[in-house]
Amino acid sequence: MERSKRKRLERAGWRVGSASTFLGLTLIEEHLVDMKLTLGARLRKVREQGHLTQTELAKRMGSSQSRVAKMEAGDPAVSLDLLVQGLLAAGATRRDIAAALASRKKVASA
User: For residue range 11-32, what is the model confidence (pLDDT) as tens digits?
Assistant: First the structure.
């Protein structure tokens, strides 16, 4: 947010902060959310690059199309394990997964 806009909102009585602050997330929780969102986005990218539909990926995983959709959308019920399983089933390597996590900007401290 631009500094001028932030100051204007604060002068009007608004409190400005991050989603993490609003939700009361710990730094660890913030990192986990960021990792899940990163892996979900990477899953979609790898799936599309492999010319796979969600249904085709689901069959490879022994899961359902709706579960793959939830994985890509960042549904909080999806585990990191499932995201990694999906990436591997879509053709990603361990190195690809590590690179996806390493390339993310560091999450700001709360």
Answer: 898 878 777 777 888 999 999 9
